[in-house]
Amino acid sequence: MPTTNITVISVALARLYFAVLLEHLKAQLQQPEHARDITIRYGKLVERTRQAYPDAPYIEAAIATNVGTRLLVVQLICERLRLPNLACLAVNATGKPGIAYQNARDWDSDKAAVLSFDWSQVGADIANAFDIEAKEAAQRAVKPKSKAVPEDDARQALYDASRADPDAYKVDYYQREAMVKLIMKGLPIDEAYAEVSE
Fold it and tell me: Helix, strand or coil for residue 42?
């Protein structure tokens, strides 16, 4: 993923996913080896993240259909800090990573590297890396400050845009609800759509 495509929202959610993935891994490592399952389904990752950080900025954009984009940010941060790719633990409904990941990386090697690494030493470097990435994403996205939009107006704007171009905003229920919340925060419809459909 080119860094120019990384948004503030993606970085904010990737930071939370990293924390939940690391917590999941540490909990699994406490289990007997035969009982471990170091992978976690996208839906479960999102659910745990929402439970752990219910008031986090942009948490409404944490939905299973766009988790892959946020995991790419986790992977990028891991690469920058020369850490094993913690994002490899997140899998889709088939129990494997997405096709893009499978085409680009060796999953078994990534999992082995994650398991053999001493994660107890990971600390401030991670927070700093996410802070730097968030700052860079914010600088790329400098725009006039948007005003908050009432929920009814956000829903109406999305409805009107969908009627004007029925093929432009094809989303499921969860994506639509996330879009409404992002529009309420002042994001234009196109940007809200990009955030939930990546």
Answer: helix
Least Cα distance to 162 among 184, 139, 189, 141 occurs for 189
Cβ-based neighbours of 93, under 8 Å, separated by 6 or more: 41, 42, 43
Quick one: pLDDT band at residue 4, thresholds 50, 70, 90?
low
pTM listed for this prediction: 0.72
**Count of residues in the chain:** 198
User: What letters, b where the CB count within 10 A reaches 16 and e where it falls short, cover 114-126?
Assistant: bbeeeeeebeeeb
- The pLDDT score that the predictor gives to residue 198 is 64
Spatial contact of 110 and 88, defined as CB atoms under 8 Å apart? yes
Burial class (CB in 10 A: 0-12, 13-18, 19+), 2: exposed
Q: In 3D, which of 105, 106, 115 has the Cα closest to residue 84? A: 115
Question: Contact, 60 vs 110, CB < 8 A?
Answer: no
Q: What is the pLDDT of residues 45-85, one digit of tens each?
A: 999 999 999 999 899 989 988 898 899 999 999 998 999 99
* Spatial contact of 115 and 38, defined as CB atoms under 8 Å apart: yes
Residue 74 pLDDT: 93
pLDDT, residue 135, reads 87
